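User: Structure please.
Assistant: Input sequence and predicted structure:
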Amino acid sequence: MLFKDLDIIKPILRAVEEAGYEKPTEIQENSIPVVLKGKDILGCAQTGTGKTAAFAIPILQNIVADKEKNNDRNIKALIVAPTRELAIQIEESFAEYSKYLDIKDTVIFGGVNQSSQVRKIKAGIDILVATPGRLLDLANQKHVDLKNVKYFVLDEADRMLDMGMIHDVKKIISRLPKERQNLLFSATMPKEVMKLVNSILNNPVKVEVQPVSSTVEIISQGVYHVPKKNKKSLLTHLLKDESIKSVIVFSRTKHGANKIAKDLEKAGITAAAIHVNKSQNQRQLALNNFKEGNIRVLVATDIAARGIDIDELSHVINYDLPDVAETYVHRIGRTGRAGSSGIAITFCDEEEKEMFRNIEKLIGKSIPVLAEEEYEIIKPIVNVEHRGNNNSSNRSNKGNSKVNRKKTGNHREKRYIKNKPKNNK
């Protein structure tokens, strides 16, 4: 199926095609016709599935139809997202797809002066993309009027719950007209999200793409079992490979992200850290530099990375394992997008083995082992790729590693040359 087969009006179709898109993704193909018919949607989809276009395109088309009856400039669509970065990217998508339409949009978020945001709202907009806190602030100041909202989108609902935004979300919903179309998207569906679903959606059509327990098959996964003290040197050695063009390194903590970025810079590897303690300008600058290729490595915490959309991201490295197994799936889903292959490498120390077992249990497969933990890694593998099929466990696959060992006194060192994990399907 092509976008032109989805009954999309010509101005939007032209913008979509100019953006380089011809075929809709699964969630776009399944969601766009439903939204055009005015039905509520419950979308279960991971990052990188194209869900923004899945709601942006039909909402724009519906607003065009609405404006033929009433051309007043007021907020007709409200999209709420958990982070500033995600909100910005959603607004950019709306702007791109509506460039041949008489529709205005803007984005509001905290951490910056509100005056320019207020001016844009007062000038008249049809679509507002917002983070919960800033939206409530401006609504309480009477700068935002939500009484005409006809389309409401709640994106990444599970992350909002994780970030403690649920009460703000409920306050926002209480300000909306009762008669409206609701679209809720979430990568996971815990009980708390389902409670929200039941309270705001009206007979929704469920669109589920890539269940959270499955990982993108074109992503090659591998794990290094490595002592915590050796993670720093292992990362540096991996990134000395210039074929790794762009990589997001995930840290569990803000302090850890700062330290990793600092250590990489000392090693001559361009890097920047992003986390919630960084200012909005700092985070946006780091993201822009990464997208433009000015830096190779973006070190991020999970919350700060949520919503970051990078095309052609070759690698994801889990420097620390996440506390929640589902987060691993979100992390590695940032590579291998748009049909490209991707590589996800995980560092696992002794304290993280239980977390690692939980991840393998969730995804239903063993992650190929790239190195054992007994020795300091001198020159680790940097080339991870698919090779054949393997349905058996790789946990003890020591025979696949070519090693050279040398004795220095009473201490043996192991040099890892290359290990290509097989593709588990």
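The first strand starts at residue 41 and ends at 44.
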